[in-house]
Amino acid sequence: MSQETTSRAVERALSIIEMVAESQKPQSNADLSRRLEIPKSSASYILRVLENRGYLRRDEGGKYQLGLKLLSLTRDSLTHTDIREVAKPVLQDFLKKTRLPEAHLAVLDNGRAVYIEMVENERSFIKMDIWIGHRLPIHTTAIGKILVSGMTNDEIREILRLRGMEKKTPKSITSMKKYVTEIKKVKNQGYAVDDEENSEEVRCLAAPIYDAKGKVIAALGASSTILQIDEKRMPDLVEQIKNCAEKVSQQIGYSS
User: Are residues 93 and 139 in the same domain?
Assistant: First the structure.
C-alpha cells in the first residue's frame, strides 16, 4: 500500500470509531459507509479489522457498537490513582441512600462527555438508557456543564462551534450566550442540572471532581425521571451529589 492509501485507511478507521462512539444507536455497515461517504466494501474491511482488534463489537442484529478495547487503553490516562475504583463505592453508597436508578462518572473527551463508570440500582424499576463509553453533548447534559465549568468562555465556545448545539428537546439550550451564562451559574453554585434538556421527562444532577491542583477532571452524576427527582427532593439530592463528588476529589488528592 502507498503512504497515501495507508493514511486514508487510517483516517477512515478513526472516522468510523468516532461516528460509532457519538451515535446513540448501533450503526450498520450501510449507515457508516453512507454517512462517511466510504465505499461499502472498504467500510466492511475496516469494520472487520476493528472488530477483530476489539475496538468495535457487533450486536445480534449485525450492527456495530464500541468495544471494550478503547476503555482499557485509556485506563491509565485519567490519574495515577484509578478514579473509577475510587468513585465506584461512593456511587454505590449514593444509590443506597437516594434509591435513584443509577449514578455515573464522566470525563471530557474531544468535546464530548463520556461515561467511564456507572452503577445501577438493581431494586429500581426505572432503567436509564446509558452505558460505559456512551458519549453525550456538553450543552444538554449536567455532566457536560460540569466538565467545561473550569474552562474559559472562549474554550467553551470553541467546543460548541466544533460540536454544534443540537436541539434534543424543547428545553435544550441552543444559544452560545445562554450556555455561557448557564456555566457561570454552575461555577457559582457548584453543581449542574439537566432539566429535561437531553431527554424529555428525565432530570440529571452532577457535581465536579477536582484533582490535586484544583482542576475539574471528571463529573459525578445521577439521573432519573422528573417524578423521582422532583422539586421537593432536589435540595437534598444536590447536597448529596456534591458531598459524594467532594469525597472522591479528596481521595485523589484534592484539598479545599
Answer: yes
Residue matched to cell numbers 497515501: 4
Which domain CATH number covers 16?
A: 1.10.10.10
d(Cα 87, Cα 91) in Å, to the nearest integer? 6
Q: How far apart are the first and last CA of the chain?
A: 55
In DSSP terms, which residues pair with 104 in a beta bridge? 118, 221
d(CA 215, CA 19): 29
Of all residues in the chain, the percent with pLDDT exceeding 90 is 68
pLDDT, tens only, 98-114: 999 999 999 999 899 99
pTM for the full predicted model: 0.72
Cβ within 8 Å of residue 243, ≥6 positions away = none
| CA angle, residues 185, 186, 188, in degrees to nearest 5 | 65
| 57 and 147 both lie in a single domain | no
Measured between alpha carbons, how far is 18 from 11 in angstroms, rounded to an integer? 11
Please report where in the chains the cell 449485525 appears, as a residue. 62
pLDDT at 183 over 50: yes
Do residue 91 and residue 110 come from a single domain?
Answer: yes
